[in-house]
Write a structure and sequence with these properties.
Radius of gyration: 15 Å
Strand order of the largest sheet: 7-6-1-3-2-8
Helix content: 25-40%
Strand content: 15-25%
Largest sheet: 6 strands, mixed
Distance between the termini: 27 Å
Shape: globular
Structural class: alpha+beta
Order of helices and strands: EHEHEHEEEHEEH
Number of strands: 8
Length: 175
């Protein structure tokens, strides 16, 4: 957390446009951006990422005020906004760039990501749905590369734009 009382979270749910919109609408989210993370190519372009050769995921960076919204709440939204049991695919979007990922920035985020994964897996299992394949990785030493400007807040600029988000249809358990 910095002096402005903000924290940063990184989530990949497949196509980043729809995920970014879901996060930016949440009270307590200060800003969002979309980009690429977890690959091997420095400063990749969208076209390069789409080849699958860079190994980057389409990522949403979420800057939030922990006094207003918790990381747990962000994770709850993450789990239900896509199908975390689908490997390298969300609906018609297929490729490693569409994988499900969480990159944590603190040990507390890691713990919360793992705990919420376990809770959501229990709910999925109760509905006969398979195993979560989401990767949960440290953001330490992993560069986040912002995507090209035309991707930023894409669905604000293009309200009828493409928003591929599959979902299991299973609510996050409220305990």
């Amino acid at each position: 957390m910095d002096n402005n009382h903000t924290a940063t979270a990184y989530f990949a749910t497949g196509c980043f446009w729809g995920a970014e919109r879901r996060f930016w609408k949440m009270p307590g989210v200060i800003s969002t951006s979309v980009g690429y993370m977890g690959g091997e190519t420095a400063n990749p372009s969208y076209e390069e990422v789409c080849t699958g050769r860079t190994l980057h995921a389409e990522m949403v960076e979420v800057n939030y005020d922990p006094a207003v919204i918790t990381y747990k709440r962000l994770c709850e939204e993450f789990w239900v906004m896509h199908d975390p049991t689908s490997l390298n695919q969300q609906g018609g979007d297929i490729g490693t760039q569409y994988r499900s990922s969480i990159y944590f920035t603190t040990d507390e985020q890691r713990s919360i990501a793992e705990d919420t994964k376990s809770l959501y897996q229990s709910a999925l299992t109760a509905e006969g749905i398979g195993e979560i394949v989401t990767e949960i990785c440290s953001a330490d030493g992993v560069t986040y590369y912002p995507a090209e400007e035309y991707h930023q807040r894409y669905l604000e600029k293009n309200p009828n734009g493409y928003d591929c988000h599959s979902s299991t249809g299973v609510a996050f358990p409220q305990i």
